[in-house]
Amino acid sequence: MADLFLSMKSVSKRYTGVQALDRIDFEISKGEIHGLVGENGSGKSTLIKIISGVEQPDEGARIEIEGQAFKHYQSIDSILKGIEVIYQDLSLFPNLTVAENISLSQTIASRSRFISWRRVNDIAERAMARIGIQIPLDEMVNDLSIADQQLVAICRALTSDVKLLILDEPTTALTKKEVEALFTVIKDLQSKEITTLFVSHKLNEVLQIAERVTILRDGKKIGTFPSRDLTDERLTFLMTGEKVEYSPYEIEEPQGVPLLEVRRLSKRGNFKDINFKLFPGEILGITGLLGSGRTELAQALFGMNRAESGDILIQGRKITIRSVQEAMSQGIGYVPENRMVQGLVMQQSVANNIVITILHRLINKLKMIDRNKKKDCINSRIEELSIRTPATDAAVQTLSGGNQQRVVLAKWIGTDPKIFIMDGPTIGIDVAAKSSIHEIIRNLAIQGVGIIVISDEVSEVFHNCNRIMVMHKGRIIAEFNTSRTSEEEIQDYINMAS
Length: 498
Ligand SMILES: Nc1ncnc2c1ncn2[C@@H]1O[C@H](COP(=O)(O)OP(=O)(O)OP(=O)(O)O)[C@@H](O)[C@H]1O
Ligand SMILES: [Mg+2]
Hints:
Blueprint: E1 4-15, E2 18-29, E3 33-38, H1 44-51, E4 62-65, E5 68-70, H2 75-80, E6 83-86, H3 98-109, H4 117-130, H5 146-158, E7 164-168, H6 176-191, E8 195-199, H7 203-209, E9 212-217, E10 220-226, H8 232-240, E11 260-267, E12 271-278, E13 283-287, H9 294-301, E14 309-314, E15 317-319, H10 324-329, E16 332-335, H11 339-342, H12 350-355, H13 371-384, H14 401-413, E17 419-423, H15 431-446, E18 450-454, H16 458-464, E19 467-472, E20 475-481, H17 487-497
Parallel strand pairs: 3-8, 3-9, 6-7, 7-8, 13-18, 13-19, 16-17, 17-18
Antiparallel strand pairs: 1-2, 1-4, 4-5, 9-10, 11-12, 11-14, 14-15, 19-20
Bound molecules: adenosine-5'-triphosphate (ATP) and magnesium ion.
């Protein structure tokens, strides 16, 4: 048996009301690439926080790293052992530049009071060169896309003398090309005996990169299996105990006045000459590579990024959308790509986040918030979206990543939009929950809502939309009717265009 880098026995962690981990035994061999999967809230991030010493396990746990046993294992121990974590929320400093973020730990480690900018830039450049990317060094991290922020976080981890690299969902916002680049880095690190623990909901990626996979369900370990013995389906089954099946979304040829029509919509550097119609009951997919202008277009329709020319019509009437309020009053709802920043007030309760967009509707004759109505509304959303929270007044930041995303969806579904634009509605959401969100999208469409789903997963748009538009460099370059094409055809088309 290969040398162990890490061995944990009987690790449990209880938070008020939740058993996040229940007597987990977990081992990682030296130099291996190990996958960790499980549904939202199954305990993955908690396990990682224990490995990095950020959280302490409950009594009875034993932790050994490179054969050394620890009594009170803490952050400092993990740092000294060369364990680097890239957390789900990235933990970057938004107000520092790219170069500063990447080189921060090195700059601190050097203990010099004098900061050499050349050195800062050098460190950052070298880290970026390692994974073959270029992001402007003096750009504020705040202004970067999520994909670029993820890459910055990865670069930062690569600057130190890392022995175990832990990636908690590192690829949620990356394109295929960037994921391939990241995998090359991980393989390259492996050839230097560096161990990787890789967490992702994209099971095909996990199976591609990891040699062994550990599966958690409800805080319990289901098992550790060699990847070659697993398939997507089997993994899904082990995670959920259920089979997930797809059926295509088909509707009759829409007629009449479109809910939304866009004519020659343009904005320099963003998108150009966009024309399309969206009918009630339609689920229109927009796919294309990152940076294709999809998000900018969505934001233009939601009043966050005004178009320079062209027209937007709602139910046949020309309108201007100058602000989010105007968009909402036209019946438009929007699930942003970057939910952590744009979607939630993290310190606030689940309940407050859900009702924040509809408070005005909960006011009774006495001009007070109708408590019962509020409670009903919150409970039905939590049930509908199976949000896993110990209580409705728990702070959103204590929920697992995927459950936070469901809160964002809940918040917007509550506004009863006529037109619903969703940018990456299932980023970071596990397979089972994903299909329940797809179900919700479908039900909204069946009730007559017009929905736009933006996603770079072709399979996601293919299985859920009746129509798909492909964007590339700010333009719509193709449109497909899903009942008349195959997923491969669309994928091939995108590969050729890029
Ligand atoms: N600080 C905390 N306080 C209370 N409960 C917590 C805290 N952190 C995590 N939990 C709970 O522990 C459970 C496991 O959460 P964890 O974040 O480990 O899930 P996960 O597997 O990483 O999920 P995801 O795929 O959604 O990121 C969840 O039920 C979560 O709500
Ligand atoms: Mg997590």
